[in-house]
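pinging the channel bc i need a second pair of eyes. not urgent but kinda urgent?? the chain im working w is below, pasted from the shared doc
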Amino acid sequence: MYFFNKDGHTGHNRFRDYMIELYAAPRGGKIQEWPQYKFTDWPKYSLLAESLTRTSAPLAKSRVKDFWGGVHKQFVVIGPGYYFVKIRRNYSYNTILSSISVDRLHGKPTRTEGPDYGVPMLCQVPYDPPPLPMSYESGLGRRIALLWNTSESKLDKVGSIALYRKSRIAAFGYGTDDGSIQQLADSLKWRLNQWNEKQREEHREVMKRAHEELLRRSPDQKKAIEMYEKRGYR
């Protein structure tokens, strides 16, 4: 899970402090019907999850605070199986969850993995940043890479966010005027979100294709979107 306190610069937003709890779903019962889960059934499953988290102890916990620069929180589970993740606002005004992803650490795909199960797989729509060079012909390129990688390695330290972006901007600034390390400059520019109009148009096209793929593989999602559009939501 990725958390980003987008407006946590000043005021009470700085004090957002969440608890994350992982629960194992009960064996047997309706929870085993989740492969046939319908988008419109989410209130029913939400009540089931809430009941579970009130009557059982979590398998694991974590805490999110000081996440103005963004932070990832991970749990390792063994499956196939069902799990609930509860984010407690912990006296904060609200909660923020920017994204959630599921990764396989090792092993072959299981029977529950594939384009026709659960959340549609969108790997057919790749969209990767320009790769960082593996080697550098000039000493300038090596110094830029050292500055960039050093800032990356310090990101998990408290208070590092104040220097993180500044050091990356400095690395990018050193490289933009040297055509011999253009690949490095392009890669750094991407990671600093300094896109030109061509890159923005490419991003819009990729997102459009991914959305079309999602609707093609998940008719329930398409029905849900149409339902919300009829109600006036966009």
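so The first strand starts at residue 2 and ends at 3. and The chain has two domains: 2-88, 114-234. — does that match what u expected or am i reading it wrong
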